[in-house]
Design brief:
The chain is α/β, with parallel strands linked by helices. The chain contains 16 helices and five strands. Helix 12 crosses helix 13. It starts with 9 loop residues before the first helix and ends with a helix.
Length: about 375
């Protein structure tokens, strides 16, 4: 992870890079930010910057051996303390190294996650409370007492230090009186849950929540979303990238199937079914209806591209791909374009408070008419 991979946060990145370059990085940092902010990504990018052997003014190189090892969470001098669940009945409590393989795998696929997401991966029983056990302290103390294997410094990243309780006093003591060249990077969400001994011994770095504009830009880039859809999801996500991502995924899962059903109902002149779909959307509210329709626009746009562009690669799961292929062979381009325009227009009508149920039914009739004429 480089600074360049972390969305936004330009000022913070510059500030952190400058303190590293001047040799003034505090030995214990507390990156504090809401769920779905870039705090953990920033911690990783900072760690890469500290160790990079080909450091540029504002970012790590991303290619040297240190960067690669930190990117895969396998650098021998970078350690992790993370909340864990005790899955066995034995008296021996787990320590982070026991779960390092799962942690590496999980971080490969996820950038913005919360404790529950992580617990769902490691716990046999998801209701189990995670914890940072006292045994962790012993393991960390022994790791930090060794000389660095590579480079000059050792780093301990503590994710969610909210789970450090007073039984971890020995670890907190070492933050106060750290061994030479040791960095502690704490990544936390809720300052009320932190022991005051943590907040008093670390330098606070507040990681701001993303703005709606930043969320929109991120969704557009990562998921190739259209402006309207990205805008609406960003509005609902409230700057929480974790929420934004789960919205995209759930909207695509739930609404794509419903959209396909709706299109088939219009095509086969099953107006009762089309009416029923419109009614259920109307009940789910205006925002959800808009999301449904904007998701539908994306499907039509892909159908059009499938029709026009040679060897076009459809980005969708199997069922959706089949539908798009069928849709684009059954209908001509003018028909798809016209339907696209009509759906687009309805999104704005619904935004302007029109009667959703009637508007949607009227739209079904228009689409039916398009499909008949192909
Ligand atoms: Zn590098």
């Amino acid at each position: 992870m480089q600074f360049g991979d972390v969305p936004g946060l330009a000022k913070l990145k510059t500030k952190l890079a400058t303190s590293v370059n001047k040799g003034k990085l505090p030995h214990a940092l507390l990156l504090l930010g809401n769920e779905g902010s870039g705090k953990l990504a920033l911690a990783y990018a900072l760690t890469s910057y500290i160790y990079c052997t080909n450091r540029q003014n504002d970012d790590s190189c991303g290619e040297c051996s240190s960067c690669r090892k930190i990117g895969s969470h396998t650098h021998p001098d970078v350690h992790y303390t993370i909340p864990l669940t005790n899955n066995s009945t034995s008296a021996k409590k787990p320590i982070s190294t026991d779960f390092i393989t799962q942690w590496r795998e999980f971080n490969k696929d996820h950038t913005f996650f919360n404790t529950a997401d992580w617990v769902s991966v490691i716990a046999k029983d998801e209701n189990k409370q995670p914890n940072i056990y006292r045994e962790e302290t012993r393991s960390i103390l022994s790791k930090l007492s060794l000389k660095p294997y590579e480079g000059e410094a050792k780093t301990l990243i503590i994710w969610m230090p909210e789970y450090l309780k007073t039984e971890s006093n020995a670890l907190l003591k070492i933050i106060e009186e750290p061994p030479q060249k040791t960095y502690f990077i704490l990544v936390a969400e809720d300052s009320d849950e932190l022991l005051t001994t943590i907040t008093s011994r670390t330098q606070l770095v507040k990681v701001p929540t993303y703005t709606e504009e930043e969320t929109e830009a991120y969704l557009k880039e990562k998921y190739n979303l259209e402006s309207t859809k990205a805008e609406q999801l960003s509005y609902l996500a409230e700057g929480n990238f974790r929420k934004a991502i789960s919205l995209v995924e759930s909207v695509e899962d739930n609404y794509s199937a419903l959209f396909r059903e709706w299109m088939v109902a219009c095509y086969t002149n099953n107006l009762a079914k089309a009416y029923e779909i419109g009614e259920s959307l109307h009940k789910s509210g205006r925002t959800q209806t808009q999301l449904f329709l904007t998701n539908g626009l994306a499907i039509l746009r892909q159908s059009l591209l499938q029709k026009m562009v040679d060897n076009y690669q459809i980005k969708a799961e199997k069922e959706q791909q089949d539908f798009i292929k069928k849709f684009s062979t059954t209908l001509n381009a003018a028909c798809i374009e016209k339907s696209y325009e009509q759906i687009n227009e309805v999104i704005y009508q619904i935004k302007r408070n029109s009667n959703g149920k009637m508007t949607l039914f009227h739209l079904s009739l228009n689409l039916r008419y398009n499909f008949v004429r192909k």
